[in-house]
Fold these 4 entries.
Entry 1:
Amino acid sequence: MVFLALVGSFFALPFVYAIMQSLKPMEEIFIFPPRFFVRNPTSENFYLLSQYAGNTWVPFTRYLFNSLFVTSTATFLQVVICSMCAFILAKGKIAGKKIIYAIITLTLLFSYEVTAVPSYVVMAGMQLVNSYFALILPAIAVPLGLFLMKQYIDASVPDALLEAAKMDGAGVVRTFWAIVMPIVKPAWMTLALFSFRDLWSIMPSGTIFSEELKTLPYVMSTISAGGIARAGSAMAASVIMMIPPIIIYWITQSNVMETMSSAGIKD
């Protein structure tokens, strides 16, 4: 227990350091030798951050709305689509499902940089560049989410239960929503956490050009790029960006632990 506490404290150091830096006045940030803890805490960095954000061409609330809308919508759709596809590939009786699953799993090897150009070509061909769809659609079908859900369904949903539901007259849709989804709640809660974490920090690159459609990380990175004079405000921005994912993890942590201990049981 002592060892685990030490390891946990070590991993918490970056977050604690970010908070300490965001509360330091300018003279403490650049003091030498540097200090870990703050001696004269101040909220000036957060105040200056609000001033910088308020002076942008687009209202700060617009960036916040864009991030919340894109993150919540894409997370919901990703959980639903990945769960439905995983259910069919795990329990459905369709020809070639093993080959389909192998191809999907193979795409886990490709990074974002590899698929950036094809994604842009597809978005441009569908005339979705410079719209919310350019951020939401690529985030809906994620191979990692499908892999996670399929592994958990294979391990947690017995075929006998599905056969019993079928004998009671439940169709595929009802079986999925009323039986499968409650059973695999830890898995889709974990997927929601991962999705929210990744989408919350997403920055438009090549598909969004309108300032009204850009997200909160964009304006935060713009403020942080202001040089050493904005070092405190940059750290305050980092702390603000970390808060929502931490809240989501705090809500879903028990489900995440259960999923991590169960999803890899069965191939």
Entry 2:
Amino acid sequence: MDKSTEDRNSLERLKSTILSIDWEITDECLSDLVSESDRLLPFFRDNPYARALLRILKTLGHYMRKHKAQSHQEAIKRIMSAFASLEKIVADEPLPESQQKQIATMEVLAFKNLKSKIERQHAPQPMMEPVAFGAETPSCLDPATFQQSLDAVEKRLNP
């Protein structure tokens, strides 16, 4: 069995969990999402983009389990999108690294956007500095920047 087939097979339990969440959001399903994401992280240690998506799934699972019905309505959409992107990255036909970066970058940016919306819901925001469009986007392609960004987001969402 080649590596990409092993990667796809390893996602089957996570896929089952995602489908369960799509059907009904329960504490058990969210706990499974967190534990399955955690279980898969070491398996993808050589793919920072798959790991970034798994960390997003894990963080969103923690967030939704903690906040339940008060969770932001986009959280479930982000879970579904992050999983779909993960499946693309580890598909039977491996994507070039540049496409993997692009897919993961879009998910990280969407995740950061959701995080900002959640933070605005829970606390009054001070005046924000204007940001030029495209000012920092290319740095998101760097795996080290992915790691730092996700660490900061996880820390804020899971105090």
Entry 3:
Amino acid sequence: VPALALSSSADAAHLHVQLIVPAAQLNRGASSNAGLYFKLEPGWHVYWQNAGDSGEPPHITWTLPAGVTAGSLQFPAPKRLPLGPLMDFGYENEVLFPFSLDVASSARPGPVALEAKVNWLVCREVCIPGKAELEVDRAIPATPAQVAELSPDKEIYDRLVGQLPTSLPSTGTAVFQST
């Protein structure tokens, strides 16, 4: 039986999931943008980091080469997803969970495989657990180089990364009022 090569994306029940790494290569001593992307069928959703009354956010377990680490998933502002008396929080249509890929100065140059086991819960009136093993292959050059970006990944990343909440400026104030 021939071995199946892992892919950067997978189609599963009610969604498409993909690892997004716009950089064509990863420089030692630098960070690169990356993300976990979901494209959902109409009416289906995945969850925010605090899912609400039910649900569970996506989760990644990494297998990375020495000297490469992945930051935590960042979660865009969610949508309220009421279902009867329950209130959940999550995402419909499409969502990108950005994270950073950090390469140590001591990382070995050459090709690297970034392997991720991804788990999620996709829901409508019922929830279906899903999982995929994804892989993105990149190279670490011996000397830092100008990094080109791959257009399909760059387009998705650039279009969706702006949905992350921004911090309140240090000179700003917030006031909470009860109504």
Entry 4:
Amino acid sequence: FRGNLELVNSSISQKVWVVNELPFEEYLQGIGEALNADRPEYQKAFSISARSYALFHMQNGGKYGKNEVFYLNNSSSDQVYKGYAWEQYAPKLVSAVQATAGEAMKYNGKVARSVYSSDSGGVTKNACQYFGKEFCTADYGYLSGGVKDPEGTTRRDASVLKASHGVGMSATGARRLAELGKTYKEIL
């Protein structure tokens, strides 16, 4: 891992956590949700989406509240962080993070909580209906759903679809857009 590892007792969750504190852009390089084999424009779109998601939570005190000892966890409920080993496995993704350094998605002048999923099933879902009232304000208009995957999008398998919430950028659809020659800005 990069950075510092600490054991921290949380009075909020009543658990001891291993917290990895590291520079923000280096954190993004270790997120294991895009592949080295993905097209560069998809990797850039993913990097910006992941950066925006993390930055949103950092600016708002963390996903689990301002008093929790970390901003995000390393699981699929937040972002699957695999650390330095992932950087070695996916050096092209590291290049995409570096090529888009500092770029974030915004909505109404604020960093967007750029939720993404592995597969929408063909059409993205409405965050308000799927996640509930926190997403039912005008601040989340960009997550109203209804975005269709492009023609020719191939689904991997039913288990991926079942495990995916389908809100926000669909990785399956975004990968197809990259195959069709779209730039990362067009994908986003």
